[in-house]
Amino acid sequence: MNSSSFVVALWRGCTRDLIRLQPLLPLSVSSSMMQSVLMSTQPVSAARLPYRVKVSAGKRYAWCACGHSKKQPFCDGAHRTAAPTISPLRFTPDKDRTLMLCACKQTKNAPYCDGSHFKVIFQDLVKSVKGVFK
């Protein structure tokens, strides 16, 4: 099926031909493929370095664990659509202070930074160096 017959099939509503053609189209994406791309089961790194944040004693905070929030390092609910299997971590500080909250989402001491971002940065560096020698 060439591009002109694709347009005719679209115009006529011949979905059977479209479904058969879909794998051949460079810009076509099935809905299940789109959902699997949009929904992640692993957190994504929001930044390479931690966020320095002033927190207040007794106030509840929700640290973004998925990395999709636009209000990093805190949750804005983006995980509901982007990563439904990952929930934010809620915490309440015992006193007013400045904290370093993890942005790479690889910490073993969530929500606090434990230096895991150095490993993430190193892995990125290794990937870029390997790319140069391919």
TrEMBL record:
Keyword Iron-sulfur set for record:
yes
From the Swiss-Prot or TrEMBL record, give the protein name.
Answer: CDGSH iron-sulfur domain-containing protein 3, mitochondrial-like
- Provide a Gene Ontology MF annotation, just one: metal ion binding
Keyword Iron among record annotations: yes
Q: Which GO terms describe its cellular component?
A: mitochondrion
Q: Which keywords does this Swiss-Prot/TrEMBL entry list?
A: 2Fe-2S, Iron, Iron-sulfur, Metal-binding
Q: Which organism is it from?
A: Seriola lalandi dorsalis
What region holds the Iron-binding zinc finger CDGSH type domain? 48-85, 86-123
The upper taxonomy is: Eukaryota, Metazoa, Chordata, Craniata, Vertebrata
Q: Which cofactor does it need?
A: [2Fe-2S] cluster
Q: Which InterPro entries match?
A: CISD, FeS-contain_CDGSH-typ, MitoNEET_CISD
User: Pfam families under this entry?
Assistant: zf-CDGSH (PF09360)
